Amino acid sequence: MCLVVVCDEPERVVATYQAPGRCPYCGGGVVAADVESAPRLCFVPLCFRIRRRFYCSLCSRRLVSVA
Looking at the record's lineage, which domain of life comes first (predicted)? Predict the structure, then answer.
């Protein structure tokens, strides 16, 4: 007997904004992106989430927000 669980979480960028501050790695500007994700189990979406993520505009690193 074999159990296969198909899980997927596609992400889509909804909007981008200029954020205050500088990248600690290269000194470039920071871009805030609203990312919509929908975790799926066997191709059925479980819920929709919108998260704000921060990226550097020069080196394209994902930055972690400290709250």
Answer: Eukaryota
Q: How confident is the model at residue 6 (pLDDT cuts 50, 70, 90)?
A: low
Task: Tell me the CA distances in angstroms from 65 to 23, 47, 53, one per residue in order.
Answer: 12, 24, 8
* pTM (two decimals): 0.72
Token output for 45 = 């979406």
Average pLDDT over residues 25-51: 88
Per the structure, the count of domains in the chain is 1
Does the residue 4 lie in any domain?
Answer: no
Q: How far apart are CA 54 and CA 49, in angstroms?
A: 16
How are beta strands 11-22 and 29-37 bridged, if at all? Answer: antiparallel
